[in-house]
Amino acid sequence: MNSTANFNDILKKSFTELDFFHNVSYIEVLVCMTIAIAVAMFIFFIYKLTYKGVVYSHSFNVSIVMMCLITALVILTISSNIILSLGMVGALSIVRFRTAVKDPMDIIFMFWAIAAGIATGGGIYSVAVLGSIVIGVMMVVMSLVKTKQNKYILVVHYSNEAKEQLNPILDKLKGKIKSKTVSKGTTEINVEVSLKNDNTEFLNRISDIPGVTDAALVSYNGEFAQ
Questions:
Q1: Residue of 107, 108, 109, 208 whose CA lies nearest to 156
Q2: What is the pLDDT of residues 132-179, one digit of tens each?
Q3: Is 20 helix (H, G, I), strand (E, B) or coil?
């Protein structure tokens, strides 16, 4: 009798001995979801505290919370059933999200919520909690760091008679022209300027120039005007 085991027999035996199903108790589900809620709400408040965009979106922030909870629930489910995990991977692979995310920081918070959900659903609560605390502290610290120069967009509407007095002021500001529109004797110019101490006295001088219809100064972060 050949004592050497066939490779197929070994594979079948190992496969049948696997623990495909693991019953998750109500206590485990309750603990997992409670920690997931705590971590998700922490992310919620950090996002609201450090948001620097144009218009704060409460619905997006809520979606971050729900993303963390749903991810934790999915990981908790597939970790208890190997067969179900294969089907879940196949089902999730066909999902496509086409919502455009303009702010890169929003993507960071989305990944943070997903990572926290994975760690919580996998039962690695220390990673979810301590990792989120470290990331949250770093987000707050980085949001408090200010650049030496603040970016603004100067918008001026003027006629041809204002060119001689307006150009020296614009040259002194050393701004970059973003756009210029000319229509029937009226010109609109958008200039990116950098101000060290938020001194806007030059705006009054521009407004007093004969031929200038109006002048406005708006905050600018490289992508959005506020």
A1: 208
A2: 999 999 999 988 876 556 677 888 888 888 888 888 888 887 778 888
A3: coil
> Residue with structure tokens 């990572």?
115
What's the half-sphere exposure (Cβ side, CA atoms, 13 Å) at 185? 3
Instruction: Note every long-range contact of 52-61, with CB atoms under 8 Å and residues 24 or more positions apart, other chains counting.
Output: 52/105, 52/143, 52/221, 53/103, 53/105, 53/224, 54/224, 54/225, 54/226, 60/106
CATH number 3.30.70.260 given to 150-219 = yes
Tokens (6 digits) for 218:
């708006």
Q: What six digits make up the tokens of 193?
A: 């300027």
Q: Which two tokens stand for residue 99?
A: 């919502």
- What sign results for the dihedral spanned by CA atoms 155, 161, 164, 165? negative
> For the whole model, what pTM was predicted?
0.63
Domain coordinates in residue numbering, the chain: 7-144, 150-219
**Strand boundaries in the chain, DSSP class E:** 150-159, 176-183, 186-195, 212-219
The C-alpha atoms of residue 182 and residue 157 are separated, in whole angstroms, by: 10
Q: Are 71 and 118 in contact (CB under 8 A)?
A: yes
